[in-house]
Amino acid sequence: MGEDTEICATNSSITTVTKLTENKVFITYGLNGARGIVCNINGTVITVGTYKDIIKDTAPVGNSPTAIALSENKVFIAYSYNSSGYRYLKMKICTIEAMTISVSSERETRLYGEFISAVLLEKNKIFISHTSVAYDYLHGTVCMIDENDTITIGTDTQLSFIQYTANEMSTVALSSNAVLIIHNQGKTTSNYYLYGMICTIEDMSITIVKDIQLSAEINSGYAISALKLKEIDIFIAHSLGSNYNLYAMLIEYLPRTVQTATQADKIYGIATTKTTDGQPVKVVRPNYNESEEN
């Protein structure tokens, strides 16, 4: 274990770390605004660059900022700011050259967003889940960034029409055109439960596939953080119970469709149980029209 290295001597209550390369990270930190700084790692030695003020607004709110690496020298940043009592999203692109940061683009929006969770779908394409200004309705927006760092914002899509569904969320990219949003939901501003919503993305349009309750335990929808471990495995950390104890959950995401490689391929069925080699197994056979076989 290496030595503890001081990054800054000021308040850093809002902190995010974004991987740029195997030995280089981008850190945002601060309160009443935010700074960015690049660190190089060589073995257990951390070299700290010079900070850059990237958010100068005096009142960022919610869980912002969130940072997504577009490449090893470019970072997308989204954060919430307070304007006349309303929380809106702002977006910026930061460019990194060696250890130096410059803000190459900024986009102010009228999208509501006190709480934010963003993921990279594919190169220069971002999905952002965010909250509405009142009652914490869940929304989603797709953004595109071109070679000139211009940010194009898609349609703001309301994903939930139930009050208090998104003051905690963590978004996972399942593929380049699908996301899983782990979020909370409650009938009041307390006693939130854990939910998972799957959405698909076509171009810049968002479609809800399903939203299911993952836990019926009281207070299971706080302190949420999720990530994709393998192709179908999603790891979720969350609180649970009256004391908000930390729990973890592993769920599997199974795509809705199976695409065959050629017309001659056949889908015989899907196993519903596990067994050993040579033993029978229960199989669910999908709808398949024998007359359409070639």
Measured by DSSP, the beta-strand proportion falls in: over 45%
Overall mean pLDDT score? Answer: 81
* Total tally of structural domains: 2
Provide the structure class.
Answer: mainly beta
Outline: globular
CA distance, first residue to last residue: 61 Å
Give the count of helical stretches: 0
Using only C-alpha atoms, the radius of gyration works out to: 22 Å
The low-confidence parts are 257-269, 288-294
Number of strands: 23
Order of helices and strands: EEEEEEEEEEEEEEEEEEEEEEE
Helical residue percent band: under 10%
Largest sheet: 5 strands, antiparallel
Describe the structure.
The protein has strands spanning 14-21, 24-30, 34-42, 45-48, 52-55, 66-71, 74-83, 86-97, 100-112, 116-122, 125-131, 138-145, 151-153, 157-158, 169-175, 178-185, 193-202, 205-215, 225-228, 233-240, 245-252, 270-271, 283-284. The strands form six sheets. Strands 1, 2, 3, 4 and 5 form a five-stranded antiparallel sheet that branches. Strands 10, 11, 12, 13 and 14 form a five-stranded antiparallel sheet that branches. It is globular, with a radius of gyration of 22 Å. Helices cover 0% and strands 54% of the residues. It has 294 residues and is mostly beta strands. The chain has two domains: 1-107, no CATH class; 115-261.
The gist of it:
The protein has no helices and 23 strands. The chain is mostly beta strands and 294 residues long. The protein folds into two domains: 1-107, no CATH class; 115-261.
